[in-house]
Design brief:
- By secondary structure, the protein is of the alpha/beta class.
- It has one domain: Alpha/Beta hydrolase fold, catalytic domain (Rossmann fold).
- The chain is built from ten helices and eleven strands.
- The strands form two sheets. A nine-stranded mixed beta sheet has the order 1-2-3-5-4-6-7-10-11, with helices on both faces.
- A hairpin with a 2-residue loop joins strand 2 and strand 3.
- Helix 2 crosses helix 3.
- It is globular, with a radius of gyration of 19 Å.
């Protein structure tokens, strides 16, 4: 049974050799009552003949990875189904927006997997909340490894969906992992760009200072000292209202109030900045030759990140940038009208490309 290590939500502060085991070694949670899901319309129990959820753990590079697998209504392990790997946002967990889209896509006939990133959520790894791009990309490869061995999965029909920061990491994973036959992102967030320059270039003047502080934090860790974190601020409602970006204001509401989950936190180790600040999700986009769908809200203050990566995907097949009219970044995570638009577009996309 997946062991959940609870850590209370901090803040959505300043935006912030593979060894996967065979399916036979996975441990499934037989619970049918409480899955910890916090999105609207979430499953509360597994009922025969309907979409079901299977909580599993598997090994990735010596760490326990906690994942939820959703199977379609009438699932028969003797049959073959297309499958979708879903990567969650920065600081998010599988029980939030990644689970919402995993459940909705399972309702369309796909087997889906949403896993907590290594060092985050209910997955293993210490120190907690390490946020290195190479680990997050490896998480996606690892989900592909595991779901490919799940009974009923057709490995020739494997798709990828990345949300927010998971979208940026999905672009990088798909550049080299051609098991993914088609790639979609929602509200893609270029974590490296933002950690380096600040959101909308708001921290350009402190780049070298923050790199020095991150270097010192790593030295302190290596010497056995205290692990330092970024993004641990706790703000009042009044302070949230004064934040300069809509992404932050709505992010506090989503992660801190309406869809809060005890395993979700936006803090990350300060030493992670050594790896985040020279990462760029939109680099080497020419390596993507699969069909590509990038979706973003027309009012999202992160829209430019999707536009930039999309323009660089010169070899992608049948690529499309789909705007969700009127939506902000966070609204694509939960607002029913926008979620329905995303699901309908994904249905069309995967039906055509898988």
């Amino acid at each position: 049974m997946t062991k959940m290590k609870r850590s209370f939500l901090s803040a959505f502060f300043i935006a912030a050799n593979l060894s996967v085991s065979a399916a036979a070694t996975a441990k499934e949670d037989s619970s049918t009552q409480s899955f910890g899901l916090v999105y609207q319309g979430a499953l509360t129990q597994n009922l025969q003949g309907q979409v079901n959820i299977h909580a599993v753990t598997y090994q990735l590079n010596g760490l326990d990875i906690a994942a939820n697998i959703y199977t379609p209504a009438g699932y028969d392990p003797r049959k073959k189904y297309p499958a979708i790997v879903i990567a969650h946002p920065n600081g998010g967990v599988k029980e939030q927006v990644a689970g919402l889209y995993a459940q909705r896509l399972a309702g369309l006939g796909y087997i889906t997997i949403a896993a907590d990133a290594a060092y985050q959520g209910a997955s293993g790894g210490t120190p907690r909340n390490v946020d290195k791009p190479q680990f997050r990309i490896e998480d996606i490869h690892g989900m592909a490894d595991f779901i490919s061995q799940f009974p009923g999965v057709d490995v020739t029909e494997l798709g990828l969906l990345g949300i927010c920061g998971g979208g940026g990491y999905s672009l990088k994973a798909a550049q080299t992992d051609k098991r993914f036959k088609s790639v979609a992102t929602l509200s893609m967030f270029n974590s490296g760009l933002v950690r380096r320059n600040g959101f909308l270039d708001s921290q350009l003047s402190t780049i070298q200072q923050r790199l020095t502080e991150a270097s010192q934090a790593r030295a302190q860790e290596a010497a056995g000292g205290e692990v330092l974190y970024v993004g641990d601020a706790k703000l009042t409602d009044e302070q949230i209202a004064k934040l300069p970006f809509e992404l932050y204001r709505e992010g506090f509401e989503y992660y801190g109030k309406t869809h809060a989950h005890p395993n979700s936190t936006f803090r990350y180790t300060q030493s992670s900045l050594l790896y985040l600040m020279n990462f760029d999700a939109a680099s080497t986009m020419e390596l993507i030759n699969q069909p590509l769908l990038m979706m973003a809200g027309s009012k999202a203050d992160t829209l430019n990140m999707s536009q930039d990566a999309f323009a660089k995907a010169v070899n992608a097949k049948d690529k499309e940038l789909f705007l969700i009219e009127g939506a902000t970044h966070i609204q694509t995570y939960w607002m029913p009208d926008y979620v329905d638009q995303v699901v309908n577009k994904l249905s069309e996309f995967y039906r055509k490309t898988l």
